[in-house]
Structures are given as C-alpha cells and as structure tokens.
Amino acid sequence: xxxxxxxxxxxxxxxxxxxxxxxxxxxxxxxxxxxxxxxxxxxxxxxxxxxxxxxxxxxxxxxxxxxxxxxxxxxxxxxxxxxxx
Length: 85
Description:
- By secondary structure, this protein is α+β, with helices and mostly antiparallel strands.
- The protein has helices at 2-11, 24-29, 56-68, 72-77, and strands at 39-44, 48-53.
- A hairpin with a 3-residue loop joins strand 1 (39-44) and strand 2.
- The protein is globular.
- It starts with a helix and ends in an 8-residue tail after the last helix.
C-alpha cells in the first residue's frame, strides 16, 4: 500500500489522480499537508449524491488530532471528519 501511495504522489505532480476508498489504512498514510485533497461524498435524501472539500477549520482540527491524539482513521471512525461544521 505504501508503494502504491508513493507512486500516486509522484504521478499527481503531473496528472490528476482520483482515489476512492473506505480504507482506514489509506487515511493513515496521508500527510498533514495532504488533508486539503480529501473530498467527502455523502448521500442527501433530497439532493442526491453530494461532494464537498473539507473546510479549513476541519483540516486544522484533523491536523491537531493527528499530532496530539492518534490516527486520521480513528478521527474518521468517530464521525468527526465528515461533520459539516
């Protein structure tokens, strides 16, 4: 998995790369400076499928969690990453 992510990081400098995953391991391999690349996909019963980037405040909170508490996947499992604040 690490080799794949390294390859994708290198390729993303010249090409657009889209990854979709529910894998906690992929979240844990993200660097703090890559959190702005996360796009949340949610199903809204009235609007259908919705895509949104993390807000700056969400990124700051996620970085703090990663630095002080634990893995990004744990933050995601608690539902905090997807909270639209």
